[in-house]
Amino acid sequence: xxxxRILLDVKELSMYFPVTKGVIxxxxxxxxxxxxxxxxYIRKGETLGLVGESGCGKTTAGRSIxxxxxxxxxxxxxxxxxxxEYVDLxxxxxxxxxxxxxxIQIIFQDPYGSLNPRMSCGAIVGEPLKIHNLxxxxxxQERVEELLTIVGLHPYFASRYPHEFSGGQRQxxxxxxxxxxxPQFIVCDxxxxxxxxxxxxxxxxxxxxxxxxFGLTYLFIAHDLAVVRHISDRIAVMYLGRLAEIxxxxxxxxxxxxxxxxxxxxxxxxxxxxxxATRERIILQGDVPSPMNxxxxxxxxxRCPIAIDECKVTIPALRNLGGEGINEHWVACHRA
Length: 336
What we know:
The protein contains 11 helices and 12 strands. It is α/β, with parallel strands linked by helices. β9 and β10 form a beta hairpin.
């Protein structure tokens, strides 16, 4: 169960990628607004699910939080247990940011592309131990074997190379690497989307087991709403770089307030043919607009079935229409 302390507080975070023209005299002609002024927080020990269509900015948001991309605007405030105080990650540079990377880690989406094919499994898992000077000699070897055992791999595999493993085993290696530096917070960037369905449940169960064992906090990025409901405490819905809705999982699934969330949930199949036959499927009209030229006002108004004139002009603020604490229900819609 999550504690009351907020571990990560993201405020007005934006990540714009410049579009340039010209070869010799290069000039900026536009911005791709991948992430556009999003704000949310994650409590210690909690899992926040981040969902939305492909290309809506979920992965960019996760990488901007970890400072793999330097955000255009905004702050990412993180509680550092060692210092006993909050630190704004956006302001950290060089050695200070390198030290902070011990506490914030990422599990990548592609288990085939995220492991160095020239390094053995043991070297991949042990690399964070060397970078942060956490273990040497016999202690290093024992820690690598311990990490492999924790994620369900035999220590004997340490000398093998990535091409000798299946997709599920590679993702376990990626998880072991993320755990090596004893982090407080992990971004899980669609960690099961590239895996077989039979393996997905094993990886989800492993992540939940590790969270309980080590007190981890997750930002779980996915587009499978059924998986997100299973693993998350709260869920944030994203559309075209902006947050549409944030609520705890039961509240979001039983009482969605944003028309985009309702459309997403209507597409999730229910394993009951009687209920499934009577459900109304919401089909959104048109395509997702380009993040280089997003619509004015509410970015969803071009596809929204209940849009009014105000939606075309005014950007809706994210406001709490629920209670306090775990009952908060934030939604960015003029008509909610």
